[in-house]
Amino acid sequence: MNRLPVFLLSMLLSLSVAQANPVRIKDLVEFDGVRGNDLVGYGLVVGLNGTGDGIRNAPFTEDIMSNILERLGVNITGEQFRPKNVAAVFVTAALPPFARAGSRIDVTVSAIGDAKSLLGGTLIMTPLNAADGEIYAVGQGTIIAGGAVAEGDAGKVTQGVPTSGVIPNGARVEQEIDFDFTKLRSIRLALRTPDFTTAERIERAINAKFDRVVSRMLDSGTVVVDISATRAISPAHAIGTIENLGVQPERKAKVVVDQRSGTIVMGSDVRISRVAVSQGNLTLRIQETPVVVQPNPFSNGEPILVPRTSAGIEEEPGIGLAEVDGSASLSDVIAGLNALGVAPRDLIDILKSIKAAGALHADFVVR
């Protein structure tokens, strides 16, 4: 008996129980203006144990190394560098909302040359720019790489990705985003998964909390809140009250399958109309056994290769005609197919056929 459909059925039952509990609004929406900003920089990692860039293959490494040394007062005009302990890298980070000058953020460091590993390296002071070109943070610190490399004269083994790593709290915020949250008179709540029913429930929950009409649904993905109508001390106090309200979200029925791994993920609201299913497996076998025919003795002929092909089709036992009631959910269908011993990949084929027949009432996504 297949364990994958049994596991999916148990997940569906647990998810249906979890859906009975309300979800906080903060887990369903994004607040307008409360967002992070992406930062990127170009820097140099030093202190590598011979696993850095080859200067001939990565000339930009030599350029940035020369610029750094010149800023430090070292004159290297006309000098040729051939070190193997430095690597050029891109440094990326996310500036969180309301980050203040002096606070620290995590950074990710990735090699852009032919460096073999960043393990044990140290990132030299690297400015991090936002999309507007301004510098908002400066990164520096020791890299924690996520892999390892071992190699010899005739072999090499790599585990993980040693050419990328992180520096926890590796950047210090130097400039704050110019945004005054206290001046907001209204704020929009953007639903991560737009849905009219969920947006209406959020609107009702907010209005019930403040005992007056302070919010209004604009569309399936937006609810606007009038901060002044909440009579809160500040917008931050109003958002602090709103984000912890519980709402029961609604989701579109969807089935997602991954044919490569045989994974099936579905919601508990998926329904199937009355349909009959019959499934069987066919195996096609073709075997080539060519025969060489020799010419007669004392003749001038040449050997001839005569093809010989044997082909056959075998039908493995499958499931017979199974009828599904129109009131059944997809979890009921999976339980029934599992009882019949249907393999996970065969189950995916059956679901695709049911969808093609118009009996599966859900979005069917195949990856």
From TrEMBL:
One of its GO terms (cellular component) is bacterial-type flagellum basal body, distal rod, P ring. Keywords: Bacterial flagellum, Cell projection, Cilium, Flagellum, Periplasm, Signal. GO terms for biological process: bacterial-type flagellum-dependent cell motility. It is found in: Bacterial flagellum basal body. One of its GO terms (molecular function) is structural molecule activity. InterPro entries: Flag_FlgI. The keyword Signal applies. Residues 1-20 form the signal peptide. NCBIfam families: PRK05303.1. The basal body constitutes a major portion of the flagellar organelle and consists of four rings (L,P,S, and M) mounted on a central rod. Belongs to the FlgI family. Assembles around the rod to form the L-ring and probably protects the motor/basal body from shearing forces during rotation. This is Flagellar P-ring protein.
